[in-house]
């Protein structure tokens, strides 16, 4: 599967991300999701697909608490890094940027 990147203005990336994530929760066979390094804004949906094995939303501008689902809890902090406004139990911190 090829990795694609979206490089556009923040309005376009916000709209694209909102449309993209609105349909993710209904994909029950989702097993690979890499949305890293795309400047996305918004929050992470409550993904709970048991087959999801690869997940990375690092290096965006995502905000709010990461939903506490069995699926999202199995991924480590590297899947969420460099989203300064993500928080909650799943990321186990108030900011998800590594210490320098």
From TrEMBL:
Pfam families in the record: LRR_1 (PF00560)
SUPFAM superfamilies xrefs: L domain-like
Superkingdom classification of source: Eukaryota
PANTHER family named in the record: LEUCINE-RICH REPEAT RECEPTOR-LIKE PROTEIN KINASE PXC1, PROTEIN KINASE DOMAIN-CONTAINING PROTEIN
The protein's name in its UniProt record: Uncharacterized protein
Organism, scientific name: Datura stramonium (Jimsonweed)
